[in-house]
Design a protein that fits this description.
Layout lengths: L1 H27 L3 E2 L11 E2 L3 H14 L5 H24 L3 H17 L7 E4 L3 E4 L4 H18 L6 H19 L7 H20 L8 H17 L4 E3 H10 L1 H16 L12 H7 L4 H21 L5 H22 L8 H16 L1
Parallel strand pairs: 3-5
Antiparallel strand pairs: 1-2, 3-4
Helix pairs in contact: 1-2, 1-7, 2-3, 2-7, 2-8, 3-4, 3-8, 4-5, 5-8, 5-10, 6-7, 6-8, 6-12, 9-12
Length: 359
């Protein structure tokens, strides 16, 4: 454990030192985020920050930790494809379809080369079910969904970085202490990635001197997806729910963005300014306050996720129902789907009015 802690600290220091050089490189090649209608920043900010996280993370895995080369190489190849996809988007702004192709190619590497996939699902009262031919599409869909969810929430200074750190730390704790994973390597890799993000965060927090860019958001999302998959090889109901709860913030934002665009008859890939952070800022919170508020929400999801491994089956069921109930109330109260789309709250108000009339 001592070597893991030392490696995480060393990775954070390396990332802290490397990030200013990546910033200068991004400015030199004009990889910058210009102010605009869809942007929060009021001046140009260099992107490609994810490159510093990527280099710090894999430097630690290859040269500091005694992890076998063959065990890391397939993940490295997949992550490099995703990183290259993000770099292209930061430089020339590729289409959403091109990004999906890049992530899918990386997912295929993970599936066939790394042999990381969902093989069997065990459900209560039903038993084990072999995924068979569905293993490949389900694995690819999982990687695509998580990767894009993290990318979608990267809308404020330090937001995706901090939320990812909270999610990864929770994943590492649960994987190391509660869930049966083939070995501790996955948890160690998770904590090392947290270290790489910790070194980057001081430059990325408001007011940001460098952004993650798609380079970083796609890479981090991809790594979270892959490392969560390594605990889902023989998935149970609990191991399926836990990573979804841990990533509650980006997943919620993504799901309700899809619902919102569907109801408004807009393409799913279209952009808008109604994401979680936009809605919170619309309530009067400052940039910094919004980021800290979402950190707190991410921490709440993490605490809920930590309860699952020590809960009974029925306890997990009631915890899930309660969490979904609370989430729906929160989403409707801030207008995440739309100002007029509050079916549950409207029903509760109507029910309360009827009670008052009877009294």
């Amino acid at each position: 454990m001592f070597i893991v802690i030392v490696t995480c600290v060393a990775t954070a220091i390396f990332s802290l030192i490397l990030t200013p050089f990546v910033r200068k490189f991004a400015l030199k090649i004009r990889a910058v985020d210009e102010p605009g209608e869809r942007r929060i920043n009021l001046k140009e900010v260099p992107t490609l920050g994810g490159l510093a996280v990527y280099l710090s993370f894999f430097f630690a895995l290859f040269f500091i930790l005694p992890i076998p080369f063959w065990q890391v190489m397939p993940t490295f190849l997949g992550a490099t494809v995703v990183l290259a996809t993000g770099i292209m988007d930061d430089l020339i702004e590729i289409t959403p379809k091109m990004k999906i192709i890049g992530i899918t190619l990386a997912a295929l590497i993970i599936y066939f080369v790394a042999d990381i996939k969902i093989d069997i699902i065990t459900l209560p009262f039903i038993g084990s079910w072999s995924m068979g031919i569905f293993s490949l599409p389900v694995t690819i869909l999982w990687i695509l969904a998580i990767t894009n969810a993290v990318n979608l929430i990267d809308g404020l200074d330090g937001l995706a970085t901090g939320v990812s750190m909270i999610a990864l730390t929770t994943m590492g704790i649960i994987g190391y202490f509660f869930l049966t994973v083939e070995n501790a390597v996955v948890s160690i890799m998770i904590f090392v990635l947290v270290g790489a993000l910790a070194g980057f965060l001081p430059y990325n927090f408001y007011p940001a001197r460098i952004f993650l860019g798609d380079t970083g958001a796609l890479f981090i999302g991809f790594m979270i997806a892959v490392m969560s998959l390594q605990g889902l090889k023989n998935a149970t109901l609990i191991t399926l729910i836990i990573p979804i709860v841990i990533l509650g913030i980006p997943i919620t934002d993504t799901v309700y963005a899809i619902i919102r665009r569907y109801l408004n008859k807009k393409p799913i890939s279209s952009a808008d300014k109604m994401h979680l952070h936009h809605q919170l800022m619309g309530l009067g919170l400052t940039h910094r306050q919004t980021v800290l508020a979402i950190y707190c929400l991410a921490a709440i999801f993490s605490v809920i996720a930590l309860i699952y491994p020590v809960s009974t089956l029925w306890g997990s069921v009631f915890l899930t129902i309660g969490s979904l109930f609370g989430l729906e109330l929160f989403v409707e109260s801030i207008g995440l789907v739309g100002k007029d789309s509050k079916p549950f709250l409207n029903r509760m108000r109507k029910f309360a009015k009827n009670l008052n009339k009877k009294e």
